[in-house]
């Protein structure tokens, strides 16, 4: 077994699940051995949210969401095959980091592997994202900034929470239920696809006050620092191009902070968690 053979086998398995969303979940769950199963809880919950929305439907679903999941599944399956064969080098950066996770599991290793695969999918498939409706692109941008921020909570907590950095590792450990506050979007955005009758403002209005405060009080004010951290930690410099003047801008969408910064709670949270970069 070498990386090329493992990549080919992984591609076949992902392709076989193309029209069967439940098989996608089975592949994602099957990656984790029993001792590591807790690491997959938030990921599987997010996958079920995607399934409920209908983005994996081969006829009416989203080519972009499927492509991102394909990249994540491929890297994980390749890494599992290589790990069982005793091989320590993969065909993609994501597969190599998933191998590192399986060899020496930790919250930081999990985030590096998971987010490297996700970022690779984002960068590879910007054209598919640009074909989505603006409201969907909003959800896509929020998803990215949240997964990168939770990575920073674990690996660079003083950047993420400032003086409260000691809470970062606890709150974002992928094995804990608390991480769903950041990674579970089921109670934030509509569980329907496509969002044919929704504008960006309409979707923003559906985002509850707690979720909006987290996004625009905790995450967005330090977004450039978070994306710069991710670019360094994931060894992917193009990540910094997905934020423009502090605003998320993947797939050509710009959400101005001024639209949401007037809320006093948002301003208070932004000040209280000002990043400490030393």
Q: Can you walk me through this structure?
A:
This protein is mainly α. It is built from 15 helices and two strands. Strands 1-2 form a two-stranded antiparallel sheet. Helix 4 packs across helix 6. It is globular, with a radius of gyration of 18 Å. The model has no long low-confidence stretch (mean pLDDT 90).
Fold topology:
Blueprint: H1 3-16, H2 21-30, H3 41-53, H4 63-85, H5 93-103, H6 107-124, H7 126-130, H8 134-155, H9 157-161, H10 168-172, H11 180-183, H12 200-206, H13 209-219, H14 223-233, E1 243-244, E2 247-248, H15 264-272
Antiparallel strand pairs: 1-2
Helix pairs in contact: 1-4, 2-3, 4-5, 4-6, 5-6, 6-8, 8-12, 8-14, 13-15
Q: Which characteristics define this entry?
A:
278 residues, mainly alpha, two-stranded antiparallel sheet, 2 strands, 1% strand, globular
Q: Could you estimate the helical fraction of the residues in percent? A: 55-70%
Question: How many discrete structural domains?
Answer: 2
Shape: globular
Mean pLDDT: 90
Major sheet: 2 strands, antiparallel
What's the helix-strand series? HHHHHHHHHHHHHHEEH
Q: With helices defined by DSSP (H or I, 4 residues minimum), what is the helix count?
A: 15
Widest sheet: strand ordering: 1-2
Q: What is the structure about, briefly put?
A:
By secondary structure, this protein is an all-alpha fold. The chain is built from 15 helices and 2 strands.
